[in-house]
């Protein structure tokens, strides 16, 4: 199957989209709200669901219903760290999983960070996993804006860099970008310019009509025709669609979004006095705000992706399970993990990447790659980073600190154990650079905020003055100098 039917032309003939050509040349969709962009993207995803791997960046949660019909894995980014999303992007490519990245429940700042981390993880996947992927980004102007908005510069740079990589450098890595936007004028030009296929829907602003006409090679005096397009009608142009601008009415779809438009409902007449009693009814005084409870750690997203891939590599997993009975010297394993932890930029690499590095080193020594599971590897990795050897890490005192760390989210365990180790040895509190490395970030501000978070979780007591900082570990009695 090399083409799909996208819809019908003016004369009722079928308008086809050449899928291999689309994978090589990318697609840009533009249209105002209500023009039918989401319907078009849904038609494209449904028609190619069983042909090519798909990744949907979904800021509004409109496409999660694809999972019910086509088996897509829905990834809710709420409570997930950037590191886990970056690693998830790598594993999505390794397992060839079709996923919907649902950004519905997070604010704009986290949407940019989550999308950027996930796309960068896909982009940095090893060459062996460069299978073709259709990467669809709805509301692309949010992730590749022309100018700054209410989000931080760091988040915008992360997201814009990922979108630029997707559209400019993704082709050789098998990444085929399909981006949809309400406003061409708000979309970064270096992202939009890399698309060779265009589907332009209804739009009313002069600047957007002019840009759409330029992209389609139409005369500017004909640009006003974009105002006359009906919902679901688009002007198509590109090597995967048509060599000349052609009108296409998008075909029907099988799935629908959970969100529906507003429906007019007749008002029921209610006397004003009754409304007054209902609306102005006195309320009880609010009770004191309950003390914040410890939240359980977020679900293991990487474990979900591993489970998703079991059907494809069951034989490999069966073989790996059989080899786990082979034992290795614990000191050798500790030494291997310490070498991984001391590598260049190891503090900032995803856990999955470091684990692959360890597995490679183990195979070179003749050990099975499953000789150490991921949780055990992560424990030794963190202990090596904080400067402990195997003998000290297995003492009862340190195991108390590890027990507390396991009640925290994975991304802050390294920060807590670094503080615990300095407090155990009565050393000065780690500086901001050390905290940032333990958290896996280059931002010193984000690293400092983790101290306040740990104090809110009531696992440390923080004493900070203008010249120094002390930390005490709750329940254990250790304190930094």
TrEMBL record:
Q: Which UniProt keywords apply?
A: ATP-binding, Nucleotide-binding
The record's listing under InterPro entries reads: ATPase_Atu1862_pred (IPR014588), HerA-like (IPR008571), HerA_central (IPR002789), P-loop_NTPase (IPR027417)
Tell whether ATP-binding is among the UniProt keywords: yes
Query: Looking at the record's lineage, which domain of life comes first?
Result: Bacteria
Give this protein's Gene Ontology molecular function annotations.
ATP binding
Ranges of residues in domain Helicase HerA central: 10-71
PANTHER family named in the record: HELICASE MJ1565-RELATED (PTHR42957:SF1)
What is the protein name stated in its UniProt record? ATP-binding protein
Classification from the root reads: Bacteria, Pseudomonadati, Pseudomonadota, Alphaproteobacteria, Acetobacterales
